[in-house]
Amino acid sequence: MEESFGALYIAYSIVWLGVFAYLAYMYLRQHSIDKDIRSLKEEVSKHVK
Amino acid sequence: MDKSKLGRIILVGAAILMLLTTYLAVIYVPLPQTSVKSADKILSSVEGSRIRVAGFVSDILNLPREFNPAQVIRFSLADFSDYQRYLAAAMVDQLDSQWWTVRPIDVEIYEVPKLMLAGIVDGPQDFIKGTNLSVLARVMDKGIGSNSNVTGFSLETSSWNDVTIGTSPGQFGIMTAPVAQKIFYFHMPSAWVSYLAFFVTLIASALYLKTRKIKYDRWAFCSAELGVLFSTIAITTGPVWAKQEWGVYWRWDDTKLVTTFVLWLVYIGYLMLRASMTDTGTRARVGAVYGILGFVTVPMSLLSSRVAPLLQSSHPQVIASNSGSLSPEAGMTIGIAIIAFTLLFITMLIRRVEIAESEEELEELKRTIGGED
Predict the structure, then answer these.
(1) CATH code where residue B364 lies
(2) ipTM of the prediction
C-alpha cells in the first residue's frame, strides 16, 4: 500500500510540477520579451532624437 | 472585460478545479469497488472461508508433490497482469517474472489440486515451475501483502469448472494497486487535452494552408507545444501507474503504449523541425503540412485500446469503449478533471499565442533596427 501511495505522490507531482513549470516558463518568456522590446524602443527613440 | 483579466480568471478557475480534482480523487472517491474492489478488503472478508484460487506454481521448493486433505501449505499465487501472455510464455517455456508479481499465501487444501495448462484440465500431476494451479482452499492468513491481489478466484465454489481465468485483474473486479488507480484522474485528462491540442494544430494548419495567414501558424505551433507538454505528463504518469498495476513500467508489445509513444515522438519532431527553420514562410508551410500528416497518429493512439481484442493491449478502455464502468463518484471526479484540464489548456494556449505574437514583434523590431543600421 505504501508503495502505491508513493506512486500516487510521484504521479501527482509530475502533473503539478509540469503545469507550473510551463506557466513559469511562459511568465519568464513574456517578461524577457517585454524587457527586450522596451529597451529596443528606447534605443530607437534615442536614435530618432 | 479586459482579455488578459478574463484569461487570469479562467486560469484561476482551472486551478481551483484541479485542486478540487485532487481532493476528490484522493479523499472523496472511495478505493475502487464493485468492478474494482480493494484486494485487501476482499481478502479480509473471505478469511476463513473457502475460496477457489487460480494461480501458477512459481516456487516448487515449498510445494509438496502430493497433498493431504486439510494440509496447510504456503504456495505462491500469481497476480496475473495478463494471463494470455503468461500462457503464451508458458507454451514456449519462456516464463519469467515480467508479466506478474508473485505473493505468498497460506491455504488449507480441501481437495487434491488439479492442474491446468494452456486451458487443458488434467488430473493431479507433478508440479513444475510455471504450472497452472487451481485449488479449492481456505485462506489461512490474509497477510499476503498489502498491495496484492488474488487474481481469478470465486467464492464458495465446489466445482472445478467454476474457476475462471481472465486476461487482467480488472476482469475479476480487482485492481492490483487500488490506490495507484487514482493516478487515472490526472493521467486520462492529460492524454485527452493532448489529443485536443493536436486537433487544434490540425485545424489551424489546414486554415494556414488555405488562407496563408500567419496567425493560424502561430495557433498551430503553440497548440502543438502544449500538446507535447500534456502528452509528456500522460506518458510519464502512465508508467508510474503501470508499475503498480502491471508490475512493469512499460510494454513494448502493447499497442496503446507504443502508438502513444509514436504520437509523442511525431510532435517532438514537429517542434524540432520548426526550430531548425529560420524562414518564416517555409517554416509555416512545412509545419502546416507536418501538422496535418502527423495528426494520423492521434486516432491511432486514441482507438488502439478500443481494438485491443484484435491488437494486444492491456491498457484500460474506460473512455475509448462502452465497456468501461465507473462509479458515480469516479465519474463526477473524472468529469471535473476533464473540465479543469480543458480550461487550463485554453488559457495556456491563449497566453502562449500572445507570447508568440510578442516574439514576432520583437523579431520585427530587431529586423527594423538592423535594416536602419
Answers:
(1) 1.20.120
(2) 0.90
Judged on CB neighbours under 10 Å (0-12, 13-18, 19+), B348 is buried
Nearest Cα residue in chain A from B360? A33
Mutate: best of A5, A20, A22, partner B, most B CBs <10 A: A22
Residues B292 and B368 in one domain: yes
Question: CA of B203: how far to CAs of B74, B186, B198, B232, B288, in Å?
Answer: 60, 26, 9, 22, 9
Same domain, B123 and B260: no
The answer to whether the Cβ–Cβ distance between B147 and A40 falls below 8 Å is: no
Distance from C-alpha of B232 to C-alpha of B249, rounded to nearest angstrom = 15
Give this prediction's pTM.
0.69
Instruction: Name the residue range of residue B352's domain.
Output: 3-30+179-372
Site of grid cell 503464451: B88
Q: What is the pLDDT along chain B (373 residues), one digit of tens a residue?
A: 676 777 788 888 888 988 898 888 888 877 653 222 333 333 444 444 333 344 444 333 334 445 444 444 444 344 444 444 555 555 555 544 444 443 444 444 444 443 333 333 333 334 344 444 444 333 333 333 333 333 333 222 233 333 333 334 444 444 556 677 889 899 999 999 999 999 999 999 999 999 999 999 999 999 999 999 999 999 999 999 888 776 678 878 778 888 999 999 999 999 999 999 988 899 999 999 999 999 999 998 888 766 654 455 556 654 434 444 567 888 899 999 999 999 999 999 999 999 999 998 888 888 877 765 5
